[in-house]
Write a structure and sequence with these properties.
single chain, 455 residues, alpha+beta, Glutamine Phosphoribosylpyrophosphate, subunit 1, domain 1, Rossmann fold, 2 domains, 7-stranded antiparallel sheet, 26% strand, globular, binds guanosine-5'-monophosphate, binds iron/sulfur cluster, binds magnesium ion, Ntn_hydrolases_N, iron-sulfur, 4 iron, 4 sulfur cluster binding, iron
Amino acid sequence: CGVFGIYAPGQDVARLAYYGLFALQHRGQESAGIAVANGRHIAVHKGMGLVAEVFNRDNLRALHGDVAIGHVRYSTTGASSLVNAQPLVFRYLRGMVAIAHNGNLTNASELRRELGASGSIFQSSTDSEIIVNLIARHSQEPVEAALLHCQEELRGAYSLVVMTEEQLIGVRDPHGVRPLCLGRMDGAWILASESCALDTLGADFVRDLEPGEIVIIDSRGVRSLQGPRVAHRAHCIFEYVYFARPDSILDGETVNLVRRELGRNLAREYRVAADAVIPVPDSGIAAAAGYAEVAGLPFVEGLMKNRYVGRTFIQPTQEMRDLGVRLKLNPIKPILKDKRVIIIDDSLVRGTTSRRIVAMLRQAGVREVHLLVASPPVLHPCYYGIDTSARGELIAARYPLEDIRRHVDADSLHYLSLEGLFRSVQRGMEDFCAACFTGSYPIPIPSPEEATKYS
Ligand code: 5GP
Ligand code: SF4
Ligand code: MG
């Protein structure tokens, strides 16, 4: 998911939040929402689909106030439906509060049980509602103090933007798994999952929130509370591999540069005689450029992607697919025919994408196709907010390399090593979560019976 918050009295906060969310669209395409506070009340509009589908001039104009938060949803837990769309808005002892969450709690079932036993009721199946109920449990205190208590009880990954009737608050979990940064712009303060949202608004990047930090923005300015912190941060390395936008800088590392370095390291580890290096658009572009540079091979855009295939697009029927309807990707045949090509993608999860692409390239007449993956095999499920496992079986966890190569029908298949992955980032490996690759989980994961909901 992507979260955004803006504190800008006197400005059109709903429209600014709309642009911010638009820049974070890659973090979730399932639903979008914006809540706005005007000092007395919080109004919200949310819907299923893309930011540009959910909002229009009229519904944005109806949201006026001084503070706004927004959310784009990518579903990990909880079904895809409007009740699970965020921000969640609720009324408690001290007024109204809105919240938007990126991440995934690992003790959600426990907390839900505990809260249920003491009388809480739930409307949705999201983790965010658990956080809402925890805040309400500490309603004798100001929200920021309640959030400090919540940090003691919540386990897992959470970057939150919270809004009262007159405050904007940002919270990052003690490991800093999901990103969250602070920016400023002509007297306005902004919180965003990624710095690309600040760039979009022409705001200045101020800093990333520290793991465990709570930032409070109101008429008194900006202040910060430091909640629990752990010995080692655990920034999600998959944000750099796949999830984040390449122009973002997360915790000091530029995503595009990391991806390019992944490709360079792949070339240092594995070479194969070929005529061209072809990226799988868009996720493989930076790595393919890095690979081509080190290998001294031409970088060729051999696959064209239609960027307008949204979620609400009517998917082709099997009959259409058999006809060869290529809505999303189309090979550029004249530059592929009789060539030995290397195709590079950022990751291989189920192998479905690669298998389709290899078949497409063979139909286009390539002589050889070598599939190189700019990250190590995904062997373990993520419990911290990326749904690699929910997307079906992890092929690398079940089959040896040669079987996968045969399944995707490539002439050769090679993954980047773990060392190559860690060499591609500036911080030491102890500062990252890479559990989906290594199996070493920085935060305790749910018990097997609770974990079944992830598989
Ligand atoms: P596969 O087809 O092997 O399951 O997935 C690999 C492809 O999916 C890659 O092109 C990669 O860019 C993309 N991918 C990796 N992680 C995710 C994810 O969490 N969600 C979605 N939608 N795509 C992903
Ligand atoms: Fe990121 Fe993988 Fe860790 Fe999940 S398990 S937080 S995807 S690195
Ligand atoms: Mg991809």
